[in-house]
Amino acid sequence: MNIQHRLGRKEYCNSDIYDGSWKEEIHEGRGRHGSGCYRFADGSYYFGTWTKGLKDGQGTYYPTGSNAPSLKRKGLLFHSPF
């Protein structure tokens, strides 16, 4: 089986945007795999690593209007719909 990886952008119907790595075998927005940035419609964003569409490993959440990362503990940053 030859699995393709690529960089790309997906704009969701709720105005969220993901820019980053994708794994081609996974569909329906769950293909986020590797490094990427997920920008929420409210202006906040999360930059980090993903596995099978889920946040995995190191990542940083930036609240709306801030250039500094959130000071909240890792793993408790926000509830994710993915």
Plain-language structure description:
The structure is a single chain. The chain has 82 residues and is mostly beta strands. The chain has one domain. The chain is 0% helix and 46% strand. It is built from no helices and five strands. It has strands at 5-11, 17-23, 32-39, 45-51, 54-62. A five-stranded antiparallel sheet has the order 1-2-3-4-5, with no helix packed on it. Strand 2 and strand 3 form a beta hairpin. The protein is globular, with a radius of gyration of 13 Å.
What topology emerges from the helices and strands here?
Layout (H helix, E strand, L loop, with lengths): L4 E7 L5 E7 L8 E8 L5 E7 L2 E9 L20
Antiparallel strand pairs: 1-2, 2-3, 3-4, 4-5
Count helical runs: 0
Report how far apart the termini are.
Answer: 26 Å
The percentage of residues in β strands lies in over 45%
User: How many structural domains can be distinguished in the coordinates?
Assistant: 1
Oligomer: single chain
Task: Name the overall outline.
Answer: globular
The overall pLDDT, averaged over residues, is 77
Element string (H = helix, E = strand): EEEEE
Largest sheet: 5 strands, antiparallel
Radius of gyration from the CA trace? Answer: 13 Å
Number of strands: 5
**Spatial strand arrangement across the major sheet:** 1-2-3-4-5
Uncertain ranges:
73-82
The amount of helix comes to under 10%
Structural class per helix/strand content? Answer: mainly beta
